[in-house]
Amino acid sequence: MQSYTLLAPAKINLLLEVIGDRPDGYHELVMVMQSVDLADEVKITPLAGDRIIVRCDHPMVPTDSSNLAYKAARLMQQQYPGHGGVEIQIQKRIPIGAGLAGGSTDGAATLVGLDLMWNLGLTQAELEYYAAQLGSDVPFCVGGGTKLALGRGEELSPLADLDQCYAVLAKYDSLSVSTPWAYQTYRTRFADCYANSPEAQEVRRRQGPSVPLLKAMQAQDYVQIGQCLHNDLERAVLDELPRVARLKETFLKHQPLGCLMSGSGPTVFALTQTQAEAQALAQQVQAAIADADLQCWVTQFCRFGISVLEPV
Ligand code: ATP
């Protein structure tokens, strides 16, 4: 049995709309998700026995059974017993609790890596089916690229690739957001915005902010795309975290194509059409904020999710 090293990219949300409640307790969502080339490296190595061991070079990442990579390995062992144990080594490059699906992409990489290592020949649809049992963002992370995600995030449709778009990501190192907290805060403050019957939810989907964004994406109109970015959770999270609100204001002063908080935050991203513009923007924002706690990454949109870096 061979070891595999996989690249596990982060995602940003070009759109996140909370439509309403679902009978299963999750939120009904409309999301436009985009992979970017900031990625963790996940190495999968066979182990004798049935043990699952997770190692990570970042001290804040749990390595016990709460790690999404561990959960993915356990799920695969349950579904396909008899293939033995696995050691999963994660090199963390995606910031934690950032709204960039860092844990989800490690879980997706473990599914893809075990499919290869155990020679299972699973289809992308089968991998996404298992991924949905691990978390709402995990199915997207398997195939990545540019996708529309409905339901609780697991109903995926591919969208035309957005070539030549760069995202400057910015996050305060000391600030993380728990996804359940962000949704709970939104729910408490904006319950009147919820559409809960299937009919009302369909009307919301047809009339919501995804309509102009998808039109702009279809036309590859980057100026319009920048203006149509939308995240419902911003209203709740930016009110609670004024530093993040100020970060967004600072980005906007430098007139990027558009600027938005990703997912449940607190990462804020701004779009540009060239790498040089992205690098200049990152420098301008770091100079304006002048806080050593602020980290910036210049990333490019990418067309893929989990990919094999090298069979070892
Ligand atoms: P999302 O955008 O999918 O909501 P996030 O990017 O906001 O997620 P993560 O980086 O996935 O957040 O981390 C959230 C929590 O998940 C962490 O505080 C950590 O305890 C836990 N976690 C479990 N597995 C991992 C992992 N492989 N990497 C990072 N965090 C993990």
UniProtKB/TrEMBL annotation:
InterPro entries: GHMP_kinase_C_dom, GHMP_kinase_C_sf, GHMP_kinase_N_dom, IspE, Ribosomal_Su5_D2-typ_SF, Ribsml_uS5_D2-typ_fold_subgr. Its EC number is 2.7.1.148. The keyword Nuclease does not apply. Keywords: ATP-binding, Isoprene biosynthesis, Kinase, Nucleotide-binding, Transferase. GO terms for biological process: isopentenyl diphosphate biosynthetic process, methylerythritol 4-phosphate pathway; terpenoid biosynthetic process. Residues 213-288 form the GHMP kinase C-terminal domain. The active site is at residues 11, 137. Gene3D superfamilies: 3.30.230.10, GHMP kinase, C-terminal domain (3.30.70.890). Residues 67-145 form the GHMP kinase N-terminal domain. It catalyses: 4-CDP-2-C-methyl-D-erythritol + ATP = 4-CDP-2-C-methyl-D-erythritol 2-phosphate + ADP + H(+). ATP binds at residues 95-105. Pfam families: GHMP_kinases_C, GHMP_kinases_N. HAMAP family: IspE. Catalyzes the phosphorylation of the position 2 hydroxy group of 4-diphosphocytidyl-2C-methyl-D-erythritol. Belongs to the GHMP kinase family. IspE subfamily. This is 4-diphosphocytidyl-2-C-methyl-D-erythritol kinase. The lineage of its organism: Bacteria, Bacillati, Cyanobacteriota, Cyanophyceae, Oscillatoriophycideae. The gene is ispE.
